[in-house]
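Supplementary Methods S3. Complex input for the manganese (II) ion-bound model.
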Amino acid sequence: MSDLLERLRGRGWRMTAQRRVVAEVLDGDHMHLTADEVHARAVDKLPEISRATVYNTLGEMVSLGEVIEVSTDHRAKRYDPNAHRPHQHLVCARCGAIRDVHPAGNLLGDLPDTERFGFTISDVEVTYRGICPNCA
Amino acid sequence: MSDLLERLRGRGWRMTAQRRVVAEVLDGDHMHLTADEVHARAVDKLPEISRATVYNTLGEMVSLGEVIEVSTDHRAKRYDPNAHRPHQHLVCARCGAIRDVHPAGNLLGDLPDTERFGFTISDVEVTYRGICPNCA
DNA sequence: CGCTTGACTTAGACAGTGTCCATTGTAGGA
DNA sequence: TCCTACAATGGACACTGTCTAAGTCAAGCG
Ligand SMILES: [Mn+2]
Ligand SMILES: [Mn+2]
Ligand SMILES: [Zn+2]
Ligand SMILES: [Zn+2]
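Predicted complex, serialized as structure tokens:
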């Protein structure tokens, strides 16, 4: 089942009921949940799990590169278990729906050397904004 | 001096000391300030200006398209008076320094039709991340 | 000019999101 | 089974942003 859980076990994580539940929630069908949304779903499976533990666990997963933090609006960060296939996000400006997208081309190459100001650039983050078919 | 102020006057804004000061701060040398940083600088010029007014004024300037909201980290929004020349941002992952950059190429064109899922896309937001010369 | 009025400002309460810490619990190895 | 280092807990706290009720004032008008 949980590939995410497998990878975490392989990294020497102490396996607790709480971490199992957080991993299960992330691997479920709902993508791009906020920490509090993850917590709400986790509570359904393990009523005594605390908010702090969910925040800690998500933060650790991000540090390990197993989960990605996404912030498409200026509100809560969202947690994305799709960390092993590089992708970007397409966001509906009206309802907030989020889709994974895979742009063609070399995004990093679009930035000329004269525009790099001596930075060593390691990452490009792109958010496409528009109106989804439902909202149109 | 303040081009920003001129444009706002032209839009029928009631001209108050508070709005003048916020516009002056934005047009100063420091770019990409947070609302509370704008407030701190505004207080130096007009001690009684309130936090709420700074938030309100910045929000109105954004609505009018005279200022852009930027969120490069997952913390406070930053306010960018450079609203009339489209650009993107380059951010130092260590110290948070922000530079304006002007990518070549058609950013929107990088997203194939098959990756648009029926959305009407109106905007692309790009953040380049790396390490600045100072931090390297 | 001085009045009038509706737009603007203010202080502070409140809400949403995230962090911290002292205490308690427990996974997993000896 | 026991130990102990690591993890979980709950609640206080910090940061960012929003809201409201009451007071203030810019600007148009006589
Ligand atoms: Mn994603
Ligand atoms: Mn800028
Ligand atoms: Zn929509
Ligand atoms: Zn730096």
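Residues 14-16, 34-36, 51-52, 55, 75-77 of chain B lie near DNA strand D (CB under 10 Å from a C1'). The mean pLDDT of chain B is 93.
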